[in-house]
């Protein structure tokens, strides 16, 4: 049954990749400028919302049914419903219709030429690397923070040691709820801040993303300081850190729309998504777990050392987030020239 599970997960991944690649380009075909930013914000709000609801639903269904298999049987039904709604209600807009008069495009190029152009597009490359940093942090924190907070409560003697997986079910529910709300707040805050900053500078998009990333790194670091003595304090740091981290999702997509011509956007989104998962959440949970195990095995095991070892491993996340902020600052250097090139093609 394991290989059937792997096959099923692979098929789900194909659908997810196709949808996440094409959907932003459809929005780009329908809207421009501030309206496009707003619509992308609404779209990308669904990512943390879905992640948060996933944590909550998965934990709740497993508890109610007494079997983790039932947690995997909820999403297919939702997928069929949303797929039907897309077929019925989403219009088939012409590529670049909102930006080109009459829907006529100035450039039609081969896939190979598109790839070469994207690799040479410095704003696109740096923003994609920054997106990978976001993905790295969200993947690692989403996997390990609930367990980390549970271990913190064990050390503080407000919870018992967990002898069977999954641990920290209550913390998963709280973390999921925070992720839902901070996703909404972050996306809206990021879009609003960008709209206001565009009145001050044309480089507003990457600069807002950079500030959000660098600010997020500070509060992610504070999670590990606060968790030693106050779980509430840790949750407050998670709330602020995730809000700042999620503030750049819609803006990053908008940056791509500005610096990539309409006919290359689907390819650009696909390559960016592949890169962000490859360098980000595809390996970050495993890497954090591996580092934590290495640290934990270096001395005699105890509840305190289990808590500290996981915290030390998770400290990699804020450093990666700072690196992502640097990539957004690099994007700001080339943003205007790359946007001008895209507008001229």
UniProtKB/TrEMBL annotation:
Give the residue range of the signal peptide: 1-17
- Pfam families for this protein: MFS_1
Where does the record place it? Membrane
For biological process, the GO terms are: sphingosine-1-phosphate receptor signaling pathway
Tell me where the transmembrane regions lie. Answer: 38-58, 70-90, 123-145, 173-194, 206-227, 233-261, 268-292, 312-336
Q: How does it sit in the membrane?
A: Multi-pass membrane protein
Q: What Gene3D superfamilies does this protein map onto?
A: MFS general substrate transporter like domains
Going by the UniProt record, its keywords in alphabetical order are: Membrane, Signal, Transmembrane, Transmembrane helix, Transport
Annotated Gene Ontology cellular components are: membrane
List, alphabetically, the InterPro entries matched. MFS, MFS_dom, MFS_spinster-like, MFS_trans_sf
Q: Which GO terms describe its molecular function?
A: sphingolipid transporter activity; transmembrane transporter activity
The residues covered by the Major facilitator superfamily (MFS) profile domain are: 1-341
Transmembrane as UniProt keyword: yes
Q: Which residues form a coiled coil?
A: none
Which family, according to the similarity comment?
Belongs to the major facilitator superfamily. Spinster (TC 2.A.1.49) family.
> Know the name of this protein?
SPNS2 protein
Q: Which organism is it from?
A: Eulacestoma nigropectus
């Amino acid at each position: 049954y394991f290989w059937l599970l792997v096959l099923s997960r692979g098929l789900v991944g194909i659908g997810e990749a196709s949808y996440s690649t094409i959907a932003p380009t459809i929005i780009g075909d329908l809207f421009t400028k501030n309206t496009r930013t707003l619509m992308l914000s609404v779209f990308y709000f669904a990512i943390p919302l879905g992640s948060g609801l996933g944590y909550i639903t998965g934990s709740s269904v497993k508890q109610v049914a007494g079997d983790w298999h039932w947690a995997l049987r909820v999403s297919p039904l939702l997928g069929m419903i949303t797929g039907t709604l897309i077929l019925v209600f989403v219009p088939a807009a012409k590529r670049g219709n909102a930006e080109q008069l009459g829907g006529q495009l100035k450039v039609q190029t081969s896939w190979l030429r598109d790839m070469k152009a994207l690799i040479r597009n410095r704003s696109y490359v740096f923003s994609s690397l920054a997106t990978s940093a976001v993905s790295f942090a969200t993947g690692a924190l989403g996997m390990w923070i609930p367990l980390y907070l549970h271990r913190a409560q064990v050390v503080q003697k407000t919870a018992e040691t967990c002898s069977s997986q999954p641990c920290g079910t209550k913390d998963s529910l709280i973390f999921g709820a925070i992720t839902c709300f901070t996703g909404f707040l972050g996306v809206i805050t990021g879009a609003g801040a960008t709209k206001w900053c565009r009145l001050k500078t044309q480089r507003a998009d990457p600069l807002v993303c950079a500030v959000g990333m660098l600010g997020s790194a500070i509060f992610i670091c504070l999670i590990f300081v606060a968790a030693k003595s106050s779980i509430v304090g840790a949750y407050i740091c998670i709330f602020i850190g995730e809000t700042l981290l999620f503030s750049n999702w819609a803006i990053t997509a908008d940056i791509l729309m500005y610096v990539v011509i309409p006919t290359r956007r689907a390819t650009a989104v696909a390559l960016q998504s592949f890169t962000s998962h490859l360098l980000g959440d595809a390996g970050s949970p495993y890497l954090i777990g591996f580092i934590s195990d290495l640290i934990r095995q270096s001395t005699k095991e105890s509840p305190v050392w289990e808590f500290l070892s996981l915290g030390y491993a998770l400290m990699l996340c804020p450093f990666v987030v700072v690196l992502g902020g640097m990539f957004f600052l690099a994007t700001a250097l080339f943003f205007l020239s790359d946007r001008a090139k895209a507008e001229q093609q």
